[in-house]
Amino acid sequence: xxxxxxxxxxxxxxxxxxxxxxxxxxxxxxxxxxxxxxxxxxxxxxxxxxxxxxxxxxxxxxxxxxxxxxxxxxxxxxxxxxxxxxxxxxxxxxxxxxxxxxxxxxxxxxxxxxxxxxxxxxxxxxxxxxxxxxxxxxxxxxxxxxxxxxxxxxxxxxxxxxxxxxxxxxxxxxxxxxxxxxxxxxxxxxxx
Length: 192
Ligand SMILES: [Fe+2]
Ligand SMILES: [Fe+2]
Known about the structure:
The protein has one domain (3-188): Hypothetical protein af1432 (Orthogonal Bundle). 67% of the residues lie in helices and 0% in strands. It contains 11 helices and no strands. The protein is globular, with a radius of gyration of 16 Å. The site of one fe (ii) ion (FE2) has 6 residues, from loops.
């Protein structure tokens, strides 16, 4: 399937707002890939498909995750919506015939991140946060950083923003997000 076939099929599985968000993440990821010298075709596809499992009803996410042997920890049990990322990677492979493990991994990591993410996974996480339909207070700070900073420095700010949002909402923090942020700070900022 080429990009247009995938987009056509995706449209039948998402509501209009989420479909438009997916197209927007795809475009933003392509621009970020160009900015940071990453494979633009992979970015375009991963961005398009990152939320392909987002409309599996919350009540079915746990069962679907069990079916595909996706690990379900206490955080996923409390917030099953997180599972749409790992399930998205499975659907991208099975339904949309994507076999590139880097693309699948980027889809899988777009909700929590992880230490040692690929640059592709970083820009999908970021594109999801800064695509033009998104509205929140510090979005312009992230957009300005993208113009002036390395990808890792932008990602530290993106993870910080996600974590403060989660804390404000009183939700559980996924340790993978903390580890992802710590790894980038250790690598890019701590030189002692
Ligand atoms: Fe998502
Ligand atoms: Fe998204």
